[in-house]
């Protein structure tokens, strides 16, 4: 029997009390309940500067190496990102840009190779009525066409996110929970199918 899917759970928000962090945590719990091995990643804690080739020339930031290592040790990504003017956040794009830069060394693949083949599921949350879904098209394109991830077709944008969670962080509307679960289950199914093919 193959090992459970190893799933990174990431929120693209740089805000305490983030709705996307709450949504990511809901997804994390669902993945965990389904038997996945989950690892939450705090992008802010990586403390990555805005990408700068001169900084890179002085040495790869530790946070980029850490994130590369996390991707190298994972099968899948569950991502909840806010929409900033119809785009995924600079925090997210910058962190992934940095991950593409470390070369293969110390038995680890290059950052790019660590990202390629990762199965990804996309979520977003916004106090607005569209739930941030406009950005998901760009996020999908970025992850899939540039980083070589396999983004599952299912996705979900949580609208009116400021009213969507109870005090314990649970989604009040069962339909929203079911929509998150559809993304999570698709990611886990696809990951297992790929593992079986490779076995
Ligand atoms: C620079 C900026 C641009 C934003 N643009 C959008 C937008 O295009 N669509 C949207 O629904 N909300 C937009 N918002 C509002 C965010 O959805 C809101 O701040 C949300 O709380 C961010 O997610 P978080 O709670 O996970 O941090 C924007 C916020 C900022 C700071």
What key phrases describe this protein's structure?
16% strand; binds flavin mononucleotide; 199 residues; 5 strands; alpha/beta; Rossmann fold; five-stranded parallel β-sheet; globular; 43% helix
Quick rundown:
The protein is an alpha/beta fold. The protein has seven helices and five strands, in the order E-H-E-H-H-E-H-H-E-H-E-H. The radius of gyration is 16 Å and the shape is globular.
CATH class: Alpha Beta
| Average residue pLDDT | 97
> Uncertain regions: pLDDT < 50 for 5+ in a row?
none
> Helix and strand string, N-terminal first?
EHEHHEHHEHEH
Bound molecules: flavin mononucleotide
- Assembly status: single chain
Gap from first CA to last CA: 10 Å
Side by side, the strands of the main sheet go: 2-1-3-4-5
Work out the radius of gyration: 16 Å
DSSP, total strands: 5
Structural category is alpha/beta
Helix content: 40-55%
Question: What is the CATH homologous superfamily assignment?
Answer: Flavodoxin domain
Structure description:
The chain is α/β, with parallel strands linked by helices and 199 residues long. The protein has one domain (6-198): Rossmann fold (3-Layer(aba) Sandwich). Helix content is 43%, strand content 16%. The chain is built from seven helices and five strands; from the N terminus they run βαβααβααβαβα. The protein has a five-stranded parallel β-sheet, with helices on both faces. Helix 1 (19-33) crosses helix 7 (174-198) and helix 3 (62-72) packs across helix 4. The termini are close together. The model has no long low-confidence stretch (mean pLDDT 97). Flavin mononucleotide is lined by residues 13, 15, 18-20, 82-86, 125-128, 130, 132. The site of flavin mononucleotide has 16 residues, from helix 1.
């Amino acid at each position: 029997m193959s090992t459970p899917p190893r799933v990174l759970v990431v929120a693209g928000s740089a805000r305490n009390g983030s709705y996307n962090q709450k949504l990511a945590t809901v997804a994390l719990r669902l993945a965990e309940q389904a038997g996945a091995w989950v690892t939450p990643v705090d992008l802010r804690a990586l403390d990555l500067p805005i990408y700068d080739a001169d900084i890179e020339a002085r040495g790869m930031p530790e946070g980029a190496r850490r994130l590369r290592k996390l991707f190298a040790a994972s099968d899948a990504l569950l991502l909840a990102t806010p929409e900033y003017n119809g785009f995924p956040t600079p925090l997210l794009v910058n962190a992934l840009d940095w991950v593409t830069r470390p070369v293969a060394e110390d038995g680890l693949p290059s950052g790019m190779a660590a990202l390629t083949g990762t199965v990804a599921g996309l979520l977003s949350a916004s106090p607005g009525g569209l739930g941030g879904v406009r950005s998901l098209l760009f996020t999908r394109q970025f992850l899939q066409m540039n980083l070589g991830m396999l983004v599952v077709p299912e996705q979900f944008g949580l609208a009116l996110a400021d009213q969507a969670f109870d005090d314990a962080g649970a989604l009040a509307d069962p339909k929203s929970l079911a929509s998150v679960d559809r993304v999570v289950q698709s990611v886990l199914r696809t990951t297992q199918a790929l593992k079986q093919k490779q076995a």
